[in-house]
Amino acid sequence: MFGVEPICKVLTSHGLKIATSTYYAAKNRTPSARSIRDAELKTQISRVHADNFGVYGVRKVWRQLHREDIPVARCTVARLMRDLGLEGARRGKKIRTTIRDDGHDRPSDLLRRDFTASRPNERWVADFTYVATWSGIVYVAFVVDVFSRATVGWSAATSKRAKLVLDALDMALWRRDRDGIPAGPGLVHHSDAGSQYTSFAFTAHLLEAGIDASIGTVGDALDNALMESQIGLYKTELINPRRPWHGLADVELGTAEWVDWFNNQRVHTAIGDIPPHEHETNHYAQQQPQPAAGVNA
């Protein structure tokens, strides 16, 4: 081990004049208020990043800190995340999985790229993707509520037959019924022109539930852009960072965990930087009748 004095002498001989007293003065100096604050913020930033699948970038970490009443400037979050080596997930390319079937009549496009809704259960969008695993390909289907961006139904299977998307639809219907907000007449279910969504079994199921079917035009991803974006997030935030996947059970467990986080914790820009569940809760709270002025509760 070398002492401080020999090291300072070597540095001085190489043109870096540092006195021994300078080193001890720096070592014993009281930490600045900024350095103390930075250390505290780094702990909070690391926690928020880790708690959210390690996918939050500067903006979402900054938003989450403010949701937790931790005031900090966005530029400070950016600086400290650079110091910590933290960054948000980056999206890759979307690979098409659905194949159109010209043998089935298709419903018309009722959304026409208008991915807005005034309430839950007004418009759902659906699609599926695939995950490469050691045991083979696993297909994962989703149903998303346009109003809140909540994933209301999903399913996974080793086959992309119509049952895959039927199971996702059934989960969505079951969950809404369980939560006391059943879906039915007035709801539009929108998808691309894949054979699974134009099959007799699927369209009959929609009719039985009183749901209007909507199919985008062939070969245009923009006609189901919201669902394309949602699947992109799924791949970016869960599938790609956690590869390799072992098989169906592995993917199902990971997807269940991600959907729960996505619906209840992940903040979304399109709905005011709050989670989907909170957005729906706020909507229903506003629908409750307010007590008349001057009347005691």
TrEMBL record:
Record-linked PROSITE patterns: INTEGRASE
Lineage: Bacteria, Bacillati, Actinomycetota, Actinomycetes, Kitasatosporales
SUPFAM superfamilies for the chain: Ribonuclease H-like
PANTHER family given in the database record: TRANSPOSASE INSF FOR INSERTION SEQUENCE IS3B-RELATED, TRANSPOSASE INSO FOR INSERTION SEQUENCE ELEMENT IS911B-RELATED
Entries under Pfam families matching the protein: HTH_21 (PF13276), rve (PF00665)
InterPro entries given in the database record: HTH-like_dom (IPR025948), Integrase_cat-core (IPR001584), RNaseH-like_sf (IPR012337), RNaseH_sf (IPR036397), Transpos_IS3 (IPR048020), Transposase_IS3/IS150/IS904 (IPR050900)
GO biological process, one term: DNA integration
GO terms for MF: nucleic acid binding
Location of region: Disordered: 273-297
Biological role stated in the UniProt entry: Involved in the transposition of the insertion sequence.
Domain Integrase catalytic, first and last residues per copy: 116-283
Entry superkingdom: Bacteria
Source species of the chain: Streptomyces nodosus
Annotated protein name in UniProt: Transposase
